[in-house]
Amino acid sequence: MEAGLLAALPVQELVFFINRGLLAGLIIGSVYALGAVGVTLIFGILRFAHFAHGDMMTIGAFVALICVALFPGGGSILGLPAAFVLMPVAMVVTALLAIGVDRTFYAPLRRAKVRPVVIVMSSIGVMLMMQGLVRLFAGTGTWQLEAGGAKTIYRLPLLGRDIILTQPQALLIGFTAVAAIALHLFLTRSRMGKAMRAVSDNPDLARVSGISIDSVVRATWVIAGALAAAGGTLLALDVTLKPDLAFNIILPIFAAAIVGGIGQPYGAIAGGMLVGFTETFAVFNWSVLLRPLAPLLPDFVEIPNRIAFVPTEYKIVVPFFILIVVLIWRPTGIFKGRVVK
User: Once rounded to an integer, what is the mean pLDDT over residues 58-68?
Assistant: First the structure.
C-alpha cells in the first residue's frame, strides 16, 4: 500500500507543478510579453518610457467590454468568448487612441526638442488622466467580459490526473505565440518593419535616407496600442475587468522590457517570459514537491506546509531582483538593447 502511495504521489505533484508552475508562469509571462513589446517599441523609436501603457491596456479591455455589450449575440460567438472575437475592434480603437494621444501630448514636445525626461513626466500625466477618465465613466466596480463569468475548462489527462487550462488562458497563450511570429515577419519582411528597425538604430541616418519618420511613429503607436488592447482584453478575460486592471503589472512590464534589452521586440518577449516564470516560481509552494521524499527523511526532519522563496504579497519585488541580476551579468539585457543615456 505504501509503495502504491509513493508511486502515485509523484504524478500528483508533477501535475500540480505543471498547473501551478509551468502554466501559471506561461500565462503571466504572455501578459508581460504583450505589454513589454509595446513599451520597448515606443522606447526604441521615440526614446522615452511610456508609463501610460498600462492604462492603454485597461482602456482596450473596456472597449472590448463595450463591444460585447453592443453585440446582439450574447457573450459567445462560435464557441469563443465574444470579447475575444470582437477584440480586433478594440485593437483598432486603442491604436487610434494611441495615435491621438501622441499627436496631442507627445508630438508637440518632440517638435519643441525637449529633453526625454520631460516627455516621461508627460506620460505620467497622461497615465493619471487616463485613470481618472476610466473611473469617471466606468466607476470603480468590476465586470466580467465572459457571460455569467463562466469559463470553458480544458482538461488534458495525465496518468489519471488532469492538466487544467481555461479557454481564456489558452487563447492568451495562443495569441501571444501568433503575435510573436507575426511581429517577427513584419519587422524582417515588410518595408515598414525594416524602416522601423532603421529608425531605431539611427534616426538621423534613416531620415536622410528618405524614410518617413512620421509614418514610422504612427506604425509604432498602432502596434503598441493594438497589442496593449489585446493584452488587456485577454487579461480581463482570465481574471476580472476593473479600472486598475493593468496598474499593478506596468512595473513588471517595464522590468521585462529592460531585462530583454531596451528597444528589442524579441527581447521584450523573452524578458516577459523570464519575469513571468521567475515571479511564479518565487511564490510557488515547493513543499508540495518535497512531500514524496518525507518517508526517506529521518523522523526529526519535518517538511513545512509551505516553502516559497518570497511570500505572495511580496512577489512584486521579484521582477526587479531579476532585473538587477540580469543587468549585472549583461548590462544591455538578454538581447543587446539600447544603452540609456
Answer: 93
Q: Could you give the CA distance from residue 310 to residue 320 in angstroms, rounded to a whole number? A: 13
Q: Which comes out higher in pLDDT, residue 144 or 42?
A: 42
245-280 exposure pattern, b = at least 16 Cβ within 10 A, e = fewer: bbeebbebbbbbbbbbbbbbbbbbbbbbbbbbbbbb
pLDDT at 338: 54
Note down the domain range covering 81. 2-329
Q: Is there a domain that residue 341 lies in?
A: no
User: Is 335 part of any domain?
Assistant: no
CA distance 336 to 153: 40
**What's the whole-number mean pLDDT along residues 255-269?**
86
* 123 within 8 A of 49, measured Cβ to Cβ: yes
Cell of 118: 520631460
Cβ within 8 Å of residue 4, ≥6 positions away:
none
Cβ contacts of residue 47 below 8 Å, gap of 6+?
Answer: 116
Task: Using DSSP, state whether 114 is helix, strand or coil.
Answer: coil
- Looking at the DSSP assignment, which residues form a beta bridge with residue 163? 156
Residues contacting 117, CB < 8 A, separation 6+: none
Is 337 contained in some domain? no
Length of the chain in terms of residues written: 341
How many independent structural domains does the chain possess?
Answer: 1
Q: What is the pTM for the complete model shown?
A: 0.88
Residue type (1 letter), 120: V
> What span, in angstroms and rounded, lies between the C-alpha atoms of 186 and 175?
16
Q: CA nearest 148: which of 76, 88, 77, 90?
A: 76
What would the pLDDT profile of 69-92 be if each residue is shown by its tens digit? 888 766 677 788 888 999 999 999
Q: Looking at residues 141-148, what average pLDDT do you find?
A: 76
Tell me the per-residue pLDDT of 215-249, one tens digit each, with 9 for 90 and over. Answer: 999 999 999 999 999 999 999 998 888 898 888 88
Asked if residue 265 belongs to a domain, the reply is yes
